[in-house]
Amino acid sequence: MDHVDIAILGAGAAGLFCAGSLAGSGRRVLVLDHARAPGEKIRISGGGRCNFTNLATSYDRFLSSTPRFAASALAGYRPRDFVDLVDRAGIAWHEKTLGQLFCDGSAKEIVSLLLDRMRGTELRLGVSVTGLRQDGGRFVVETSAGPVSASQVIVATGGKSIPKMGATGIGYELAKSFGHHLIEPRPGLVPLTFAEQDLDLSRPLAGVALDAVTSHGSGKSATRFADAVLFTHRGLSGPAILQISSFWQPGDELRVDLFPKGDLAALLREARGQGGRVQLRTTLARWLPARLADAVAVELGLAEARLADQGNPVLDRVAARISDWRLKPVGSEGWRTAEVTVGGVSCAEIHAKTMESRLQPGLYFIGEVVDVTGWLGGYNFQWAWASAEAAAQAI
Ligand code: FDA
Fold first, then answer.
1. What atom in ligand 1 is closest to the CA of residue 38?
2. Which atom of ligand 1 is found nearest the CA of 41?
3. Which amino acid residue places its CA nearest to atom 35 of ligand 1?
4. pLDDT tens track, the chain, 395 positions
5. Following DSSP, what letter does each residue of 205-263 receive, concatenated?
6. By three-state DSSP, how is residue 116 classified?
7. Residue 160 C-alpha to ligand 1 middle, in angstroms?
8. What is the largest CA-CA distance in the chain?
9. Mode of pairing for the β-strands spanning 148-155 and 363-365
10. Which residue has its alpha carbon closest to ligand 1 atom 44?
């Protein structure tokens, strides 16, 4: 049986980065992946430009059942460290908004950087990992091309999002077979879907996008995101919805403020004070997309209403419908489109500094397979790099 010092399962962001950090260490490193090409999610990330890190990275930008777990690895490998790599590779980049760094050219440049960096290690593609066991102090990785023996194993097989891109959830099965517990994986950074009756408003608005604030929870513990919202045929999407979707669970209510720029009720009263025979919907369209203004007026039975005829309670109702829209999505678009997995291998059984299993020495978990999920905006790649580096330094 083929023997290697370190087997890395998965040639995605975390696996490739880890191999690069181990290259030149004098040990035989083998990376296995069932895909035909490495780093497929990197290639399609950030709309093809790869949002490869976020300058505002901090552990509180991540969801985890062990909230501070990511802090140590993130402190050990910072966004600037990755930017240095990108600069040394001569890859041009820019900051978009909110600390998000993107390639000027193509995400493929990041894949090439990672592949160059891991020279000296071996990458075997088209090989499915099917199991993992211990045998006489060594690991045996079961694969579609036969077993491989390894002294240490790094599980970097990612989560379950986008099966078409190669996601399998095998990492969870491997973890469970060594006694690890899972935080139930669920789709994150994903468009949300509505029940049929709630689609009456949103379906005709499909394609309309506007700035909004989405929130989940209430009071001080509420989570809020200010960004764009996009109406779809099935519900809502756009960055503010993707962000809040990672916090949402079936049955939860979300609040959406579709006019975060000001006090809509006050603006409507002021406009009414200016007199005239203008329709309510026409006035609303001064501040909102016309299709949304129309849809809200129709929904509230005010399609033909003139602003001058409306009392304060009506204007307050209109404003609340727009600024404090409460909705209960019935679901999400699921693994098919989710950008990430929320949940995964419980951090309670992994050492935060090294990513090594607390249950099985020599076994490591890095990247998305772990119960650490970043917000939208480059945080997930930063976690992949940082957790991979933590494992590589420890091994
Ligand atoms: P990743 O999924 O990258 O790699 C896992 C690897 O394991 C894959 O290559 C897979 O083929 C392999 N594998 C799985 N099962 C296997 C098996 N049984 N046998 C062999 N191999 C197996 N993040 C970010 O920070 N900025 C961004 O711009 C984006 N954009 C983005 C767009 C889209 C469309 C998606 C889907 C995701 C993003 N992300 C992102 C998220 C980011 O892509 C993700 O968090 C990282 O790729 C996770 O890296 P991992 O290496 O952990 O898993």
1. 9
2. 43
3. 339
4. 899 999 999 999 999 999 999 998 999 999 999 999 999 999 999 999 999 999 999 999 999 999 999 999 999 999 999 999 999 999 999 999 889 999 999 999 999 999 999 999 999 999 999 999 999 899 999 999 999 999 999 999 999 999 998 899 999 999 999 999 999 999 999 999 998 887 887 888 999 999 999 999 988 889 999 999 999 999 999 999 999 999 999 999 999 999 999 999 999 999 998 877 899 999 999 999 999 999 999 999 999 999 999 999 999 999 999 999 999 999 999 999 999 999 999 999 999 999 999 999 999 999 999 999 999 999 999 999 999 999 999 99
5. GTT-EEEEEEEES-GGG-EEEEEEEEE-SSEEESHHHHHHHTT--TT--EEEES-TTS-
6. helix
7. 9
8. 87
9. parallel
10. 380
Residue nearest to atom 3 of ligand 1 (CA): 12
Residue found under tokens 């989405």: 214
Helix/strand/coil (H, E, C) string of 91-105?
CCEEECCCCEEEECC
CA distance 154 to 137: 16
User: Would the CB of 45 count as within 6 Å of ligand 1?
Assistant: yes
Total residue length of the chain: 395
Structure tokens at 392: 């590589």
Looking from the CA of residue 53, the nearest atom of ligand 1 is: 25
CB 161 within 8 A of CB 339: yes
Strands (E), 2-78: 2-9, 29-32, 51-54, 62-63
Distance in Å, CA 310 to ligand 1 centroid: 53
